[in-house]
């Protein structure tokens, strides 16, 4: 097995990550999802060529600091575990994709924002009350997904993200800052299940927006400016009490 490059042992009911797996010198992709693993061995640092590591749906309570030595790692999935702290060692990785959704995080430090090559950051379904203050450092971020009932604001930094194409924010958000209009590359927006009472004006400046989900808010009226979103293909307004069917919706055509 010394030449093994890809190993998938998902759903095998293992509870211990064997140290033997750490000595596969050519392993590039490893998946151990849907098992009962509570910890990862320190020897994981020996997987020098590992680029893609998936440990979703286990019982992990922490990520070992030795992960920081996997300099080739680009994709890390550790969603649906029992992580309470996102190890600062993540900042030393050259990650492009990070999924730590469905864990027990109450906060995420600014160290995560040192992962400046991140393109996909998925942190929804945690217990976050606020976002890292320096999130705007993630200049290459294209997909950003965050949600939880405790989150009531996007923070001032989100509109300064330069390159997102997909955003997903759910929680108790009451308004969308007008500066979001500067994120002109957004093509998909999910703002469902928040506390929005007015249609966000900033969305009308996102001309490339195609699917837009505003379901589960308290918006009663659709503003005429929605007709400026010329490429809009999918609009979801479920679970809301509209005062009337706005005629401006009929102008949404190319």
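Q: What amino acid sequence fits the structure above?
A:
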């Amino acid at each position: 097995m010394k030449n093994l490059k890809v190993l998938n042992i998902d759903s095998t009911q293992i509870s211990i990550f064997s140290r033997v797996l750490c000595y596969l010198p050519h392993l590039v992709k490893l998946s151990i999802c849907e098992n009962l693993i509570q910890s990862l061995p320190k020897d994981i640092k020996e997987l020098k060529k590992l680029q893609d590591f998936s440990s979703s749906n286990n019982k992990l309570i922490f990520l070992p600091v030795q992960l920081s030595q996997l300099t080739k790692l680009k994709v890390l999935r550790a969603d649906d575990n029992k992580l309470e702290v996102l190890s600062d060692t993540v900042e030393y990785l050259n990650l492009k994709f990070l999924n730590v959704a469905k864990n027990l995080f109450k906060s995420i430090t600014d160290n995560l924002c040192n992962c400046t090559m991140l393109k996909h950051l998925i942190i929804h379904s945690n217990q976050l009350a606020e976002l890292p203050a320096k999130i705007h450092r993630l200049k290459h971020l294209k997909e950003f997904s965050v949600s939880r009932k405790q989150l009531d604001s996007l923070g001032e930094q989100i509109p300064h993200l330069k390159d997102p194409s997909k955003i997903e924010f759910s929680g108790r958000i009451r308004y969308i800052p007008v500066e979001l209009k500067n994120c002109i590359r957004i093509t998909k927006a999910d703002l469902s299940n928040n506390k929005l009472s007015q249609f966000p004006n900033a969305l009308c400046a996102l001309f490339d927006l195609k699917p837009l989900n505003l379901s589960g808010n308290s918006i009663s009226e659709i503003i005429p400016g929605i007709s400026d979103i010329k490429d809009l293909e999918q609009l979801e307004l479920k679970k809301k009490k509209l005062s009337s069917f706005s005629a401006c919706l009929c102008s949404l055509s190319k």
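Q: And what stands out in the fold?
A: The CA atoms of residues 97 and 120 lie 5 Å apart.
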